[in-house]
Design brief:
alpha+beta; 6-stranded antiparallel beta sheet; 4-stranded antiparallel beta sheet; 42% helix
Length: 348
């Protein structure tokens, strides 16, 4: 089936829970999306509020405190909010990303030559008595490596070992520095091996149909084409340019003219970070309005399924709204309702 840009837009929004808010738990949404981008504090909270009929940010805090939800480095080498099950297995798949960071990251130049086998043992020993702050972890590792900078040693531990960021980091309205512990010790269950084919299917259920390059962009993991080649159950579509799009069987393709309500999202959301061209819900022009030199400039507004403006929080409310173009009276009414909804979230 040849799919139009509009059909791909609406299908992505439907699979993301952004055409109609869903009932269910925070954990069910986090699992369906294979995690939420969480390097910026507010983004996962706004993303969940946009997707769930009823959302209380205290649910995320409770999940982090009980280890049912976990913050850790994984996809694309960025911080994600994951379910405990996914946190225990996903790093076994994203090892190539962390290895690449070890080789190319400038802040790791002083430690990238270290043998990782004894280094990992040193990290395990340093955390044997419990979690440590970044500073304390670096200082503990410096006992074994006195000729290396403690800050670089802590940075290497972050990429060499599956470390969870413990609360209060990432909780609602409770600031906290980064404190690390091995994710299996924090969750209380052993690490598990990832099934790449299962992860690709889960990606397609949340982001598909998609090309092999799209899966690689989402994950940062190479070799996706090989995995797809061993998945005969997938169905094949094409986009308007004739590129192959893979999908799970019997997945719904949404009509390109289906209504798409106004939604407010954070600075970062995998909605627009998980396809090679990043063009399912944005255009080159709107991406330029959002992107700064070192990342996104502001939180995002989507109108009729497309990036259409930016918003910025001011304390416990939405402080400013900037639209890129005019909107209809009906869209303005929807926008006002969404702003009021986010105001309630920010004030909670």
């Amino acid at each position: 089936m040849r799919l139009t840009r509009e059909e791909l837009n609406r299908t992505l929004l439907q699979r993301q829970g952004l055409l109609e808010r869903r009932s269910g738990s925070v954990a069910s949404v986090v699992r369906h999306l294979v995690g939420l981008q969480a390097q910026e504090r507010l983004s996962p909270y706004v993303g969940l509020a946009a997707r769930l009929e009823a959302f209380d940010p205290a649910q995320v805090t409770a999940g982090l405190e009980s280890a049912a939800l976990v913050r850790m480095v994984c996809l694309r080498g960025t911080i994600h909010l994951l379910t405990d099950d996914d946190a225990l297995m996903i790093r076994s798949w994203t090892v190539p990303i962390q290895e690449r960071e070890r080789v190319v990251a400038q802040n790791l130049r002083a430690v990238r030559d270290l043998d990782l086998v004894p280094f990992r043992a040193a990290v395990s020993a340093a955390l044997a008595d419990g979690p440590l702050s970044v500073k304390a972890l670096g200082e503990a590792l410096a006992v074994a490596y006195p000729d290396r900078p403690p800050v670089a040693l802590a940075g290497l531990a972050r990429v060499a070992e599956p470390l969870a960021q413990l609360p209060p980091r990432g909780t609602w309205r409770r600031p906290g520095g980064v404190v690390y512990h091995h994710v299996d010790r924090w969750v209380g269950r052993p690490l598990a091996a990832a099934d790449p084919a299962d992860l690709v299917r889960r990606y397609l259920r949340a982001f598909g149909p998609a090309t092999a390059a799209d899966v690689t962009t989402w994950s940062g993991v190479p070799g996706v084409a090989t995995v797809l080649g061993k998945m005969p159950d997938l169905v094949r579509h094409e986009d308007e340019r004739g590129r192959a799009l893979w999908d799970v069987p019997d997945a719904e393709i949404v009509a390109g003219d289906a209504p798409a309500p106004v939604r407010l999202l954070g600075i970062y959301d995998n909605l627009w970070l998980s396809h090679a061209a990043r063009d399912r819900v944005t255009s080159p022009e709107t991406r330029k309005r959002w992107a700064g030199t070192n990342g996104g400039l502001a939180c995002t507004i989507f109108v009729d399924g497309w990036l259409a403006g930016l918003w910025r929080p001011a304390g416990d409310r939405v402080g400013s709204v900037e639209l890129f173009d005019t909107v209809t009276p009906a869209q303005r009414s929807e926008l006002d309702a969404e702003v009021a909804r986010v105001d309630v979230l920010l004030a909670s």
